[in-house]
Amino acid sequence: MENMFERQRPPLPQPSLIHGSEGPLYVDNIDHGVTEAPYEHGFSPYEFNGGTTIAIAGKDYAIVAADTRLSSGYEILSRNVSKLHDLTGKCVLGSAGCKTDVDQLRSVLDITMKVYQHNHRKSMATTSVAQMLGNTLYQRRMFPYYAFNVLGGVDAEGRGAVYSYDAIGSFERTQYSATGSGQAYMIPLLDNVIGHKNRLDENRELPAEEVVEIIKDGFVTAGERDIYTGDAVEIMVITAAGITTTMYNLKAD
User: Fold this and answer.
1) Rounded to an integer, what distance in angstroms lies between the CA atom of residue 214 and that of residue 45?
2) Distance CA 211, CA 157 (A)
3) Is 9 exposed, middle or buried (CB count within 10 Å of its CB: 0-12, 13-18, 19+)?
4) Partner of 109 at 20 to 30 A CA spacing, among 45, 86, 136, 164?
């Protein structure tokens, strides 16, 4: 007589009958990813390579800055890749996102700028560049460039101008903007220090030199919290006289 306290063994899985092209076949009930629940294989043409860009407009200047780290997941692919691209002598594009899409976008914009230069014998104005960039992004709205852009420069009156974009070309002129993996850390700082929001002290005009120091502090802060921001920050100051570039080292871990 079977012992009533003996542990019952679970029944073994019974083979199932399926009808294949070569006749009936018996298979077990173990899912091998072929019969009952096929594995899903996906492909994405995009990759986010990290990085942070920032742009600030002043009375007679604009400053565009970005870090130089290029990442993929938890890997650092390069520590010295520029995310800034000067389109004219008074206009700079900052782009974060997928490196290949950013490079392609730059190539398309450079070709358009050269055609304009040959046709009109002059460089495109900053306001026109802003509209052209929006049109270029919108033309690819069905398969967008995975690039998040800020555009900074000086307009025809010599005033600083910053334009903020989404992925399909919608844009607005603003006093400051930031994109990329460190955007969430930059915008609150800019709201407080540049936008002067929720403050009772005097809102004064900041000289370009002071804004450059604020940008350095902002990237140091973002680099402490964001693993995709680091190594160095490239800062371009744009005035009616031209563009000056400075580098500032960040932490390399």
Assistant:
1) 36
2) 21
3) exposed
4) 45
Q: Please name the residues in contact with 253: beta carbons below 8 A apart, sequence gap of 6 or more.
A: 230
Q: Which residues contact 170 (CB under 8 A, 6 or more apart)?
A: 134
**pLDDT the model gives residue 25:** 53
3-state SS class at 43: coil
| pLDDT profile of the chain (253 residues), mean per 10 | 56 55 54 58 86 96 97 94 96 96 97 96 96 97 95 96 96 97 95 93 93 97 94 97 96 84
- Specify whether the CB–CB gap between 168 and 187 falls below 8 A: no
Which residues are registered as beta bridge partners of 234? Answer: 66, 247
- pTM, 2 dp: 0.82
